[in-house]
């Protein structure tokens, strides 16, 4: 009976079992999910077209609609959402999108009340011109580190096309291909933290780290504050970059693009690793996947085997992996062999979710409801009898 049970649980994919539960569906091109810190009852789902929806108790409510001001061509869209660490008291949150008119990346703040979001509360925090006119590599993740409160981190892509034709990522006078770090103003605008690496030196003051191609999905470990970057590769290598909080979060780090693609010289434009450049903590080739989706260090508490491991995946292969101690384990994935894993997301108390661009949200690791052994046995018996009936 035990064998039968395991077979039933492993039906959906390969690798060690990873419990997953469909908890949301019907979203239109969802690309991100988050919640205010500590909020265990609500999820905020970002739709690429410019809408944020709130899901609570199985009910979905439109929360903010800025679709009229968002360009959604190719990789453009509403791409990022971050709640202010003091959201519970100030109601402030931040979005990252491509402006319909200027095609620039815009980071804006809004303020929510118990009545919802007042669109008139919109304040532009920062704008990054998308010179070059290409429609891909917009990154768009934004977030706060629990170990660096008050500073907003903003991931930008290299601006698009092939081989970073304008050499933005290595250019410290461009805010493209970077991780930026700013102190957002309470009424729009921003200041630059005095300890940013290029303050008082050549290079844009907003830049925290550089040499990134399309750092589309990233995270800070909610426990340690460590930084994890998922940098989407070009034709060869997909890349995970890491900087611990204890070592200063990679202040001034050069992650190598366009000279380096993962651990190799970029074919055509690459070369030796630039002096001081940081190699990825992990990279993989295109037989395994073709668009890395950066994830989270699992802190959800529902799976002891996963706890403390970095969970990430690939948009094209649908694979989900756990990275720990330099080695990767393939996990069961609800999206195995189906293109569409658009992001992971963390709930307000650390529950981990996977998002399918086709509209589905899966809770990972925690089976809901947690099935009692007797219930699992019943499921196994049902599956067994169904298989027998099909065979008959
Ligand atoms: Ca400077």
From TrEMBL:
Signal peptide from the UniProt entry: 1-19
InterPro entries: 6-blade_b-propeller_TolB-like, Glc/Sorbosone_DH, Ice-binding_C, Quinoprot_gluc/sorb_DH_b-prop
Pfam families: GSDH
Keyword Lyase included in the entry's annotation: no
Gene3D superfamilies in UniProt: TolB, C-terminal domain (2.120.10.30)
Regions crossing the membrane: 361-387
UniProt KW keywords: Membrane, Signal, Transmembrane, Transmembrane helix
Residues of the Glucose/Sorbosone dehydrogenase domain: 39-324
Record protein name field: PQQ-dependent sugar dehydrogenase
């Amino acid at each position: 009976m035990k064998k039968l049970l395991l077979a039933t649980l492993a039906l959906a994919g390969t690798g060690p079992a990873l419990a997953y539960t469909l908890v949301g569906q019907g979203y239109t091109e969802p690309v991100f999910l988050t919640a205010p810190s500590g909020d265990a009852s609500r999820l905020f789902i970002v739709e690429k077209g410019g809408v944020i929806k709130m899901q609570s108790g199985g009910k979905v409510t439109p929360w903010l609609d800025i679709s009229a001001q968002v360009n959604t061509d190719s990789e453009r869209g509403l791409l990022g959402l971050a709640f202010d660490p003091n959201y519970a008291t100030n109601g402030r949150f931040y979005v990252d999108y491509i402006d319909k008119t200027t095609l620039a990346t815009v980071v804006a703040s809004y303020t929510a009340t118990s009545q919802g979001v007042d669109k008139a509360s919109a304040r532009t925090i920062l704008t990054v011109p998308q010179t070059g006119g290409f429609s891909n590599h917009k990154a768009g993740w934004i977030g706060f580190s629990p170990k660096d409160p008050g500073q907003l981190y903003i991931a930008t892509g290299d601006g698009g096309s092939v081989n970073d034709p304008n050499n933005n990522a290595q250019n410290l006078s461009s805010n493209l291909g970077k991780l930026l770090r700013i102190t957002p103003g309470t009424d729009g605008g921003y200041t630059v933290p005095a300890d940013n690496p290029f303050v008082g030196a050549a290079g844009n003051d907003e830049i925290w780290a550089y040499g990134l191609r399309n750092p589309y999905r990233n995270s800070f470990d909610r426990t340690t504050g460590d930084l994890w970057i998922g940098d989407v590769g070009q034709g060869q290598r997909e890349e995970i970059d890491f900087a611990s909080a204890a070592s200063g979060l990679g202040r001034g780090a050069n992650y190598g693009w366009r000279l380096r693609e993962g651990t190799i010289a970029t074919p055509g434009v690459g070369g030796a690793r630039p002096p001081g450049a940081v190699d990825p903590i992990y990279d993989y080739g295109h037989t395994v996947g073709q668009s890395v989706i950066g994830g989270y260090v699992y802190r959800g508490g529902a799976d002891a085997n996963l706890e403390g491991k970095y969970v990430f995946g690939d948009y094209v292969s649908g694979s989900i992996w756990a990275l720990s101690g330099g080695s990767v384990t393939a996990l069961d994935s609800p999206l195995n062999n189906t293109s569409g894993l658009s992001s992971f997301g963390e709930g307000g108390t650390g529950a981990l979710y996977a998002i399918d661009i086709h509209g589905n949200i899966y809770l990972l690791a925690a089976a809901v409801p947690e099935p009692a052994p007797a219930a699992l046995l019943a499921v196994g018996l049902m599956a067994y009898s169904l298989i027998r009936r099909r065979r008959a």
